[in-house]
Fold this sequence. Notes:
By secondary structure, this protein is α+β, with helices and mostly antiparallel strands. The chain contains four helices and two strands. The chain has a two-stranded parallel sheet. Strand 1 (19-24), helix 2 (28-41) and strand 2 (45-50) form a beta-alpha-beta unit. Helix 2 packs parallel to helix 3 (56-71). The longest helix has 16 residues, at 56-71.
Amino acid sequence: MLQQHCADLDRDYKTIEKTILTTYSSDRNAFLAQLDAYANMGVDTVIFSLRDASNQQAYEVIAKDLMPHSAQLPTADDRL
C-alpha cells in the first residue's frame, strides 16, 4: 500500500523510514522471529516497550540476545 502511495506521489519509497511500535513480552524466540519478519517486510526501526518493566531478566535478554540479533538484520541502506 505504501509503495503505491509513493508511486502516486512520485516519491521514492526507499527514502521513507519505516517504523513499527510493538511490545516485548518476555518470549525471546517469538520476539526474535518477529524482528526477522519486520526486517523482511522492510521495517527500518522497531520501537518496543516492555510489558513488565520491573523484570530484570528482560533487560538481560535485550542486551545479550535482541540487540546483537538486531544488529545483524538488513538495514534500509542494505536495501537501497
